[in-house]
Specification:
The protein has helices at residues 3-10, 12-33, 41-51, 81-85, 89-106, 110-117, 119-138, 142-180, 185-225; strands at 58-62, 69-71, 76-80. It is mainly alpha-helical and 226 residues long. It has one domain (3-225). The protein has a 3-stranded mixed beta sheet. Helix 5 (89-106) crosses helix 8 (142-180). The radius of gyration is 20 Å and the shape is elongated. The two termini are 15 Å apart. The chain crosses the membrane at residues 6-23, 131-161, 199-221. It comes from Rubinisphaera italica. InterPro entries: Zn_peptidase_2 (IPR007395). Pfam families: Zn_peptidase_2 (PF04298).
Length: 226
Amino acid sequence: MYGYFGLMIFTAPAILLMMWAQYRVKSSFANGLRVPTRISGAAAARHILDINGLQSIDVVETPGQLSDHYDPREKVVRLSHDVYQGHSASSVGIAAHEVGHAIQDAENYGPLVIRNAAVPAAQYGGTAFSILLILGILLHSIHLILLGIVLYGGLVFFQLINLPVEFDASNRAKQILADTGMVDTDGAAAVNSVLNSAAWTYVAATLQSVLTLAYYLMIFAGGRRD
């Protein structure tokens, strides 16, 4: 059972997990928006950066929903409108998570350094794999197919190393918010829900990439035997 349909069946557990995780993220984020905080996400990010000696890192608003991220090249924490402007547990929690990445960067946190080095593999590995796979099939070249699989392995490696990076950033966020008292008991519970839900999306993405790699390795091995 090869081809696109076979891939969908093989990776179905990851696809279902991703659908559930995305639903949970949206639900927990919406619930967290209803838990008020004294400060905005932007103010929380600025305060956490300052107390960690990272005054040189800017906090800016960026377009999109849940488009929040830390840019290690520009040394900027970019927060979506709802997070930047919002006075809620969701806003503060996500802002603190992204600042967690900035702190990792400042500390040269090992997994983050490796992940940043693997970014090109994540950006181009999937596209290169698709092109080489098609060319390999058309030209009956087992070597092109194998090269595509190897390049896709770079994307899988990125996903795997991304897990400890994201989990560590969330743990830092939870600890900082608890230590600084920026959220109360209800706020802490909401933050945990949002960040834990987001963690499942990373797990699902990693599982899908691992299963995809396993699927094509299985096909490659079968083709070699034939």
